[in-house]
Amino acid sequence: MLKRTLTGLHLLWCSLNLLTAQQLYFFAPPVNNSDNSHIGIVDLQTCDTTIITRSSLNAMAFHADSTLYGARKDTIFKVSLEDGSISYVADFGLAGQYPGISAEGIAVIHNTVFVIFWQPAYNLGKYDTPLDIFWPV
User: Is residue 5 part of a domain?
Assistant: First the structure.
């Protein structure tokens, strides 16, 4: 039974070796116009949380290979779970046309990254990745 309520957290399923069946990564999006989101581990038995790093991304998702991806504005990044650093993957080329564009959600399914954008209306972006982005040769 959970002792505390977890609010505002997005639990991220990941099958990394360092996590047990009672632990999951979580992503806490920025609040109060903050630029920092938090990535951490939550213990599902005690609800204890440990922040492991911070990131400037406002949407994140795991690929089946345990790589964490994130989005900011119209750009997709890989995210390091060790230090929160990000590396560029691709962009949709929309930021110039829509300066207020914001990535509100991201999902990685097989070799495709889907991003939900807000501004000027909700839209879905789809990026088919080359295989070496997910599985380096």
Answer: no
Widest CA span of the chain, in angstroms?
49
In-domain check, residue 105: yes
| Bridge partners of residue 118, in order along the sequence | 102
Per-residue pLDDT tens, the chain, 137 aa: give them: 333 334 444 555 443 434 566 778 777 776 665 667 888 888 888 888 888 888 888 788 888 777 888 998 889 999 888 777 889 999 988 888 888 888 888 888 888 889 988 876 778 888 887 655 544 43
Domain count across the chain: 1
Is position 3 within any domain? no
CA distance 112 to 122: 19
CA distances from 62 to 4, 14, 25, 33, 129 (A): 25, 7, 10, 24, 15
Predicted structure pTM score: 0.72
Residue whose C-alpha is closest to residue 104's, from 25, 37, 15: 37
